[in-house]
Design brief:
0% helix, 57% strand
Length: 341
C-alpha cells in the first residue's frame, strides 16, 4: 500500500446527526461532508511477524520507539522521514518503552530478564540494566525527582528507579496485579491501575508512597490509562470487562462506563484534538471525543492485532504497529480527514 492514501473500515458518528458511514476497503461515495479516518502509509518494519507492545514518541526529535515484544527488539522509527532508524537487539520480551528527552535516555522494560534497560538517545547503546523486577511492564518518568516508576505486573508492586544513577530505590506494594503507570505533570503525581482490587492508586513521587486509592467500581481488572493533563482527567480501561471510565482527578469522582473493544490494552490521548484512542486485543479500536469533561464515541476501526497505539499531538497522526500483514510487520499511520465526496 505504501504511501497511497486509502480509507479503512470504520464507522464514524457525525456530530449533530445519527448518520453512520461505513466503508470497506477503498473509499465509497457518500453524500454529506464528514470526518473520516484514512491510511496515510503502511511502512514495513524489520523483524519477525510477531507481537508488538508499548510505544513512546519523543516530540523533540520525532522519533517513535516501538517495543517489538516477541522479536526481543526495540524499533526506532523517524516519524518525520517515515523510516526505520535502527532495530536494536537484546531486549528479551520487551514490554514498556519510554523516551525521556531531558535525560537523553530511553528506558525499556526487558521483561524476560526482569530488568529495565537504559539506552543512550544519541548512540542507541545500552548504558545500564536495572533490576531485579519480577515482571516490568509500563513505565512513567517523574521529572520533579528524576525517577522512573515501573509497573511490576506480576510482582503486585510499583518499582522505583533513580534515573540519575540507574539504581533500584524501592518497591511499593499495591496489593494486586499492576496495569499501566502514568505521570501527571499537572499535579506531580503517579497514577497506577491495579487489577483485582479495581483501583486507581495515587503515588507521591518524592516520598514514593501511596497517597490515595480510588475505587473503579465499573471496571474489572483496570489496565490501560491515559491522561488529559490540562483538564485533569484520567481515562482508565478494564481489560476483563471491556469498559472505560473517566476519572475527574480534581475530585476523584468516577464517571459512568463506556463500552470498548474486547480486552482493551493501550490508550493514547491526543491533547491537541482532545481525542482518545482505545486499542484492544480484539483489534477493535474505539475513538472518543472529550467534551465537557466527558467522552463521546466518534468512531471505531478494526485492525489485525491492533492492540497498541500512539498519537502525535502536533501532527495528530496515529500509529499502529501491526504484527502481521501478508506475513510481515507493518507500521500503519492513520489520520482524520474531512471528506465531502
Amino acid at each position: 500500500m505504501g504511501r497511497r492514501a486509502q480509507f479503512i473500515a470504520i464507522a464514524v458518528l457525525v456530530a449533530g446527526s445519527s448518520a453512520v458511514f461505513v466503508s470497506t476497503g477503498l473509499f465509497s461515495k457518500v453524500t454529506e461532508k464528514r470526518d473520516v479516518l484514512r491510511i496515510v502509509a503502511d511502512v514495513p518494519l524489520p523483524g519477525l511477524a510477531v507481537r508488538f507492545d508499548y510505544q513512546s514518541l519523543n516530540l523533540s526529535d520525532g522519533r517513535l520507539y516501538i517495543a517489538h515484544m516477541n522479536a526481543d527488539q526495540l524499533v526506532v522509527f523517524d516519524t518525520r522521514k517515515r523510516a526505520v532508524v535502527a532495530n536494536l537487539d537484546g531486549f528479551h520480551r520487551v514490554h514498556g518503552v519510554l523516551a525521556v528527552p531531558e535525560l537523553h535516555r530511553i528506558f525499556a522494560s526487558v521483561t524476560g530478564d526482569h530488568q529495565v534497560a537504559v539506552v543512550d538517545e544519541a548512540s542507541l547503546k545500552t548504558l545500564a540494566r536495572v533490576g531485579d523486577i519480577k515482571y516490568p511492564d509500563g513505565l512513567a518518568y517523574a521529572p520533579s525527582v528524576q525517577r522512573i516508576f515501573v509497573s511490576d505486573e506480576h510482582g503486585n508492586a510499583e518499582a522505583v528507579i533513580d534515573a540519575t544513577n540507574n539504581t533500584l530505590i524501592t518497591s511499593i506494594p499495591l496489593g494486586g496485579g499492576v496495569g499501566n503507570t502514568v505521570y501527571d505533570s499537572g499535579a506531580d503525581r503517579i497514577y497506577v491501575a491495579v487489577h483485582g482490587k479495581n483501583e486507581l492508586v495515587t503515588i507521591d513521587p518524592l516520598r514514593a508512597r501511596i497517597t490515595a486509592r480510588t475505587k473503579l467500581t465499573w471496571l474489572d481488572d483496570p489496565h490501560g490509562i491515559a491522561l488529559d493533563v490540562a483538564d485533569q482527567l484520567a481515562f482508565v480501561a478494564g481489560e476483563a470487562n471491556d469498559r472505560l471510565v473517566v476519572v475527574d482527578l480534581k475530585t476523584m469522582q468516577v464517571g459512568p462506563p463506556l463500552s470498548v473493544g474486547k480486552s482493551p490494552d493501550v490508550l493514547a490521548f491526543d491533547s491537541g484534538t482532545k481525542r482518545l484512542y482505545v486499542a484492544a486485543e480484539s483489534g477493535q479500536v474505539k475513538v472518543f471525543q472529550e467534551a465537557n469533561r466527558t467522552l463521546e464515541p466518534v468512531g471505531e476501526l478494526h485492525l489485525p492485532h491492533g492492540h497498541t497505539v500512539a498519537v502525535d499531538p502536533k501532527t495528530h497522526l496515529v500509529y499502529f504497529p501491526l504484527e502481521n500483514l501478508d506475513g510481515k510487520p507493518v507500521l500503519r499511520i492513520i489520520e482524520w480527514t474531512a471528506n465531502d465526496r
